[in-house]
Amino acid sequence: MNIKPIPRIPSSSRLSTLKGLLRNTVTAADRSVINQFLVDGEKELQEFQVEISRLQTAILALEARREGLKQMMEKYRSLLSPIHRMPLEVLTNIFKFYCNVNVLEIGTLSPAMTLSAVCGKWRELTLNTPSLWASLSICYCSWEGYELEPLIQLTQLFMERSKTSPLTLDLDFFTSDFDEEEYDPKPPLAILVQHSSRWYDVRWCFMREQMNHPTFEPLRSHLPMLQYLDIRANDEGNPVDEDDTWDLFSDCPCLHTVTLLSMGFPLSDTILLPWQQITVLTVDGNLVKIFRILSHCPSLRQLKLPSMGKLSTGHLYDVQSQELLSLSFKASNAKDLSFLPYLMAPQLTSIGIQGGYFGRRNRGFDRWDEKPLTGFLARSSCSITILRLQWLPITDTQTTLLLGLMPTLRVLSIWECTHANLAKNHVITPSFLNRLTVDHVGLDTVFLPQLTELEFCVVNEDLDQRALLQMLSSRWLPDHQNDHRADVNCLQSFSLIVVGKKEGPSPECFALLQHFSNSGLRITTMYTHEVTSLALNFVHMH
After folding, report:
1. I want to staple 130 with a disulfide (CB 3.0 to 4.6 A). Which of 30, 55, 114, 163 is the partner?
2. What is residue 140's predicted lDDT score, i.e. its pLDDT?
3. Where along the sequence do coiled-coil regions lie (predicted)?
4. Residue span of the structural domain in which 106 resides
């Protein structure tokens, strides 16, 4: 960069003359010299200012170029980060986890929209991966009172970008009014219905009166890809016509997993489905009508009964479910076990029973009658490998007798039926733990020799920690060094949930269990005073 020379200052002789005037009287001739000096000085000051401005401009330009170079270096330095060494296939899979559910709501970008706004590379990858746009969740209540045009545009955008990918839809229209003119919920639904040939996994919450609305008429016989269907209906006190049927899903050649739950009149009484091909069913309602459905489900492999109506409108008849492998149900009272004497499942391997526990009070039945369950097992002649009991009023003796009928059991989960005082364990007692303990010296038959996974939820104040640790030690056989008990499987995992006081300390055995974890046994521990939230976790886990 060339820099212009700075203008010269007055000569030394002129400066000497001017300095002398500071001590003498100024004459007319001197005034002429002074004026000339000032004129020259003003001119030189202007030249100085021009040069300064030029140099400052040059500095600003250099600083801008410097910052631009810094930004460019940072931009290209980011290419050295590990994520840019990641294959696009791996990055795409990560994106799929992140975009598992795209919730369309006011003021929030969905995961797919967020990824497409990060950078050019991610945008291109996101737009070229239709499956990232194929999962939608719409809750109408979050749009209620707002202009629905953005929702309509978003729905259309996701349908276009998902191209031909199978669609996973979570549609909550419980609060919608199909007769509403200002906030009409039908347009976004109509867009989704147009793409019904791509429906793969659908969860649909709606008012029962909307069942046969013309908006959904195009669905009939146009659901070739649908495999998972979860329908939840609400009557909201409105009268229900028992003769009113819903046959939109009667022709779904790939459908195999169905959930039917209703706040009111059971859905199973009004919906027509291809029952003969259903393999997984979750349903509530009257036991008589549930059994009627079971008689039409020859391929059923998994059955969940989250709630059962009173057995008052008819009588059960025997049903033999030849393919049923897993049965789980909620028993809020003793009558909820009344269906077991009428059911046979020779291939059954898994049973889960949840009692009626809410908060710190047990609202279920007080005494456990083992006859319905033991009779069911005896008639079915099945080999149970998985048993989960939650919040049942069963004793340690009754549990031991029940487990004696399951010599092939591999997975056992027991959650204590804790009453208001949270003070006593009725199943996980010292006697029960001793029964589970393997005797490596004696010749007695081992109790539950194939057990590999164990889970307990117990009351802290009544837990015999020493007996618990002895039981675990006897079943921790990683190397099978004891040939005398070579027929006993080594325990692979143990989960312990301890319920105690809010301010109480964690049990001492938690620290000792860490030794098992360090040796290879999968250990999970939790100390809590909030039992209510565990119910939801149990439902999701099992």
Report:
1. 163
2. 83
3. 38-79
4. 85-278
